[in-house]
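Give me the fold.
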Amino acid sequence: MFLSFSISLTCCKKQEASNDEITLTPEYARGFVIHQNGDYKEIEVKQPFPNSTASYRYLLIPQNAELPMHDPEAQLVRVPVKRMVCTSTSHIALLDLLEATSTLVGFPTTDLVSSPKARARIDSGYVTDLGMDSEINMESLLSIAPDMVMGYSITGDMIKLSKVKEMGIPVIINGEYLEDHPLGRAEWIKFMAYFLGREHQADSIFHQVKVAYETSKGLTMNIQIKPTVLTGILYGDTWFMPGGQNYASTMFQDAGYRYLWDDDLSTGFIKLSFESVYERGQDADYWIGVGSFGSMAELQNAEKRYALFRPFIDTQVYTYDARKGSTGGSEYLELGYSRPDIILKDLIKIAHPDLLPDHELYFHRRLE
């Protein structure tokens, strides 16, 4: 999946398959591959949701082209798509980067969207609010006649999306959030691009993000003493913390921190008690990522024990929600998947400001 299928595949792993099929594997993303057979492309989503035992296949057919012989299990999608419904704000960021925001015609709970381009379309009446994500209004969806719906599933419950498919609307599952590496998540811009016919653009954008990320990472390679960091907050009685092999843990390590739970072997999130987090993290140098809390007072009012942590005492607590859209949507949760290079620079700037003297925090800010 580089500039095209006809030039050198320096960014992809090329594998010959039977019946003249070529399989192209992305550099970092592990959740999808491209199968090229003649003039047709098929995208395979290898892990559509956690613990999935089957992959999903999407056959991309140019407009007005004849249908080839194909696997009946593969879903057909006419490309390039002109009218799209997205269900995650991270999908909208991909449209923005590919200069394809004009294809967005529907979204559940549009107030969550922070993108100025998408908000302009929403405010002008070009994007229909489809209600809550789990309860998409089917009548509204049918009325806007999208060429496809890009969805996702965290639990594997596909009942609602299956009903959309039964209505004759192709449903494409995006599994970007399951990637363990930050650049793996960013590489899903190529996945989106195939449906829009913008593969060249996607390759160029991803290459720039990759170079920026790796360049920043290189700045921290020789750091001998790394500051410690904890993250997350309590939800009820449970503190959700990224596992030691989670993408967030990778970013902390690449930014020159010692993540205090880096000995954990899980790639998802681990559930901990307050006491266990305090035992290990009470003397952390930094606390980065405190949900939607906007001030130290809000944080302490929610849980008085937060004030016992040294980063709270030293006012070294940072939120990633420094930027919000006009209706309150989080730009970090929207754009962050696609731009891990910006997140990495923020993290480096917080702990090692001399390494990036000209960078100003973008997603993050210190709570006061």
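The longest helix spans residues 199-219.
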